[in-house]
Amino acid sequence: MSEPAKRVKDLATKVRILKALKDGASREEVMRQSDVKRSTLSTYVKNEAQIMEAFEGEKFHARRKRLRTAAHPQLEEALLQWIVTARESKLPLSGPLIRASREASVRRMRRPR
Asked: What are the HTH CENPB-type domain coordinates in residue numbering (predicted)?
């Protein structure tokens, strides 16, 4: 089988690559050592601020590959809080139960106040 065309690097690797560039290593050398293409390296440099902020702010785990966040952060936070409370109460949790709680949270958030 052939090797996958897309090899996504984790956050720690991206930071290591950016630091190597800042320390004076040439782009060609970094590309060869890190096994990344020129366009990928350019994207890392372009998004350096977001990558460094995510890494240093500990917003994401170092092994994380993408910097996506939830589409609805308030809903995610409410659901996480519900799961934590349910676990503390030793309630059995299942996929359908969590899904039902999510739907109830959505209805509460959409209700006019």
From this structure: 63-113
Classified as helix, coil or strand, 32 is helix
CA distance 90 to 83: 10
pTM over 0.85: no
Cα–Cα distance measured from residue 67 to residue 38, given in angstroms and rounded to the nearest whole number: 21
85-110: per-residue pLDDT in tens?
A: 999 999 888 889 888 888 888 888 77
Rounded distance, CA 14 to CA 65, Å? 9
CA-nearest of 112, 91, 90 to 100 is 91
Specify burial of residue 68 (Cβ count, 10 A radius: 0-12, 13-18, 19+).
exposed
Mean pLDDT of 7-23: 88
Return contacts of 76-85, CB within 8 angstroms, 24+ apart: 78/105, 78/109, 79/105
Phi, psi of 105 (to 5 degrees): -65, -40
